[in-house]
Amino acid sequence: MKNLISTTILCCIANLLFSQNSDSAQYYFQKGLENIDKRLYAVAGKNLDKAIQFNPNFVEAYLANGKVNLEMSKIYEAGQDFTKAYQLQPANNEVIKQLASFSFNNRQYQKAIDLVQKCSNCADADRILGMSYYHTEDYGKAEKYLLNAIAKNDKDADAAYTLGRTYIELENEKSAIPQFQKAITLEPSKNVWMYELGLIYYNQNDYKNALNFFNMAGEKGYNKTNDYYENYGFAQLYTGDTENGLKTLTLILERKPNNKELLNDIAYAMYTTQHYQEALNYYEKLLTINPKDAASLFMAGMTFQKMGQKEKGQSICDKAIALDPSLARNRQKKDIPMGM
Fold it and tell me: What is the chain's alpha carbon radius of gyration, rounded to the nearest angstrom?
């Protein structure tokens, strides 16, 4: 009889303690929410920690604490909170949504994909899937989900930009252009996007638009590296602004003296734009660096022929072929491919 009474008393005490702990957990949870509304995140975090101490299975407190930790840039702690909530309730859509967003924002893309696929009502599922598939290099799936995401929200600049990048990876630059244009319209401060769109136009031989977006990028603070000036200079040349194009490229040659690749590219640009004397000057610079540069010698010969000095040009081409017999295949061609 005594054992029965003792057991009953212990059960009553346990229930009382559980009830008290639950009440305390709820109290501190509500205090934490009030602090969040006031943006008192440090205080909110302390109250939510207390709520979790009183009830270690308090999923809503873990979620709230995770968001508070994110506000305070405590990334590791936030991840622990969201993960704990998921361990307690792996089928809870709100928990899945928070952990998926956290994983995506912290570049855990495969984890984000796996989680979103378990969420039946995640509003941004297509966006997370599309951008995550892009970062995991599954471009076919990225295109599918990004198109869905943009159809739901055509104001999403990042999704449009990522879709544009996806089309580049799919070797479809023409489809990439309108996505970049949309992204830049929505986010007109993104100078990197402008420069990338300039490069796309450059690769499409649309040098006028390339210059336009190179200029926009520069005006918005894009770092004007040597690569920037090289692309800018060649775009100037190919739009017919030879004088300024050469000035721009000369600036790079001053920074990179005797750079054979750059000299060759300038020479070829001069050749293809029919500025033959300028082309010859650059081929002669290349031959000064390396007198046995057969490709430059051959192009010098071709340039002389374009200038009307056919006999001299043919003689020079013959000397180049003697140095490199493979050049003979170009003898009958009207033009020589760049990078020869």
Answer: 33
pLDDT in tens, 41-93: 999 999 999 999 999 999 999 999 999 999 999 999 999 999 999 999 999 99
Predicted local confidence at residue 5, as pLDDT:
52
> How far is residue 32's CA from residue 56's CA, in Å, rounded to a whole number?
16
Q: Where are the alpha helices (DSSP H) in the chain?
A: 2-37, 41-54, 59-71, 75-88, 93-105, 109-116, 125-135, 139-152, 157-169, 173-186, 191-203, 207-219, 226-238, 242-255, 260-272, 276-289, 294-306, 310-323
Rounded Cα distance between 111 and 99, Å, is: 9
Q: What single string gives the DSSP state of each residue in 185-235? A: HH-TT-HHHHHHHHHHHHHTT-HHHHHHHHHHHHHTT----HHHHHHHHHH
The fold adopted by the segment(s) 12-89 is: 1.25.40
**Euclidean distance between CA atoms 129 and 115, whole angstroms:** 10
Q: What is the mean pLDDT of the chain?
A: 91
Which percentage of the chain shows pLDDT scores above 90? Answer: 86
Asked if residues 230 and 202 have their Cβ atoms less than 8 Å apart, the reply is: no
* Domains 188-257 and 276-340 in one fold: yes
May I ask the CATH class of domain 276-340?
mainly alpha
Reference 282, options 258, 305, 306, 313; nearest CA is 258
- Which CATH class, in words, describes the domain spanning 188-257? mainly alpha
Q: Residue for token digits 């190179």? A: 214
Q: Kindly report the number of other CB atoms within 10 A of residue 80's CB atom.
A: 15
Distance between CA 316 and CA 319 in Å, rounded? 5
What pLDDT is recorded for position 338?
41
Domain assignments of the chain as residue spans, ordered by start: 12-89, 188-257, 276-340
Q: Would you state the pLDDT for residue 336?
A: 44
Residue of 14, 7, 5, 49 whose CA lies nearest to 28: 49
Amino acid, single-letter form, for residue 300:
A
Residue 23: the pLDDT is 80
Do residues 160 and 182 make contact, with C-beta atoms less than 8 angstroms apart?
yes
